[in-house]
Amino acid sequence: VAKQNGSSQYRFYDAASDKSSQEEIRLEQELEQAVELNQLRLMYQPKFDIRNGEAIGYEALLRWDHPIHGEISPLRFIPLAEKTGMIVPIEQWVLRTACMQAKNWQKVGRPVVPIAVNISQVHLMKPDIYESIIETLEQTQLDAHLLELEITESAMMHNEEHVIEILDKLKAAGISVSMDDFGTGYSSLSYLHSLPISCLKIDRSFIRKITTDKDSKAIAEMIISMAKQLGLKIIAEGVETSEQVALLQELQCYNVQGFYYSRPLTAEQVDHAYVS
Ligand code: C2E
Ligand code: MG
Ligand code: MG
Ligand code: MG
């Protein structure tokens, strides 16, 4: 039993949670070298226009191939990387790799569509994030209009002044920003209106129940009409069934991403797919 801060609160030793926190600390340390050891890679999930079935862009999604544990989900290791600050060099690697890949697809004559990269709140708060993104575009020779950043609604809720300033500069440079996981944060309508973003991504949690739960449908419908009113593009995440596609079409949400159309693919799989 450990006595904390000389107060009367006692914490009982919990072997299971102690073991799991040791495991997290070990993973944190291993993550420090994951970039250099070449253990990170990107998958690319296409986004589609349901009206013609064409790929309208790709989202780069990070994977960590751990030598012992195998593939570790970003949902598990991104929070660790945010805690240690490793997220910044990791996302710089993601940006460079994704931009190089998009440039490469352009060079070999594939349809020219934007590549989207997820940006963590921790990275977004770095004072030099703008300069570092511009430098990556220069190094990779990718046109700024072909880079999209995805930032979650909740990440945009911190330090609103800083966020607006950065997004303004990115927009002026031709880089577009999407609000990811929309509907799960608490942004006010006035803040949403003041943000220089170009697209809302409706969170998967609403799409999952859109054909079975009338509240989810109502929320999706409201988000779609609001996006239209505000002049924002809209895309539905996590589309898995033809029923969901039909309903989204009815609601006039024509851009989708999800397993129904395609899972995240390796760059090689993209090379061999969807060539129009
Ligand atoms: P996200 O940005 O919302 O990306 C979409 C996630 O939903 C991806 O999971 C994708 O594989 C999954 N998904 C897409 N379609 C479907 C579907 O139809 N059904 C289901 N069940 N899932 C679908 P993934 O790749 O595991 O990534 C999870 C999250 O990890 C991402 O959510 C994103 O928040 C984060 N992430 C991934 N890469 C990065 C990165 O480079 N930086 C940061 N900050 N976060 C990243
Ligand atoms: Mg995303
Ligand atoms: Mg999302
Ligand atoms: Mg999501």
Describe the structure concisely.
This is EAL domain-containing protein. The protein has 276 residues and is an alpha/beta fold.
| Assembly state (oligomeric) | single chain
Which range does the strand content fall in?
15-25%
Biggest sheet record: 8 strands, mixed, barrel
Strand tally is 11
- Gap between N and C termini, in Å? 66 Å
Number of helices: 11
C-alpha Rg, in Å?
20 Å
**Order of adjacent strands in the largest pleated sheet:** 3-4-6-7-8-9-10-11
Shape: globular
Mean pLDDT: 92
State the helical fraction: 40-55%
* Cofactors, ions and other ligands in the entry: ligand C2E, magnesium ion
Organism: Saccharibacillus sacchari
Protein name: EAL domain-containing protein
How would you explain this protein's 3D organization?
With 276 residues, the chain is of the alpha/beta class. 45% of the residues lie in helices and 21% in strands. It has eleven helices and eleven strands. The protein has helices at 15-34, 74-84, 87-107, 121-124, 129-140, 160-172, 189-194, 204-208, 214-230, 242-250, 267-271; strands spanning 2-3, 10-11, 40-49, 54-66, 70-72, 115-118, 147-152, 176-182, 199-202, 233-237, 255-257. The strands form two sheets. It has an eight-stranded mixed beta barrel with strand order 3-4-6-7-8-9-10-11. A two-stranded antiparallel ribbon has the order 1-2. A hairpin with a 6-residue loop joins strand 1 and strand 2. The longest helix is centred in the middle third of the chain and has 21 residues, at 87-107. The protein is globular, with a radius of gyration of 20 Å. Residues 1-8 have low confidence and may be disordered. Bound molecules: ligand C2E and magnesium ion (3 copies). One magnesium ion binds at residues 180-181, 201, 237.
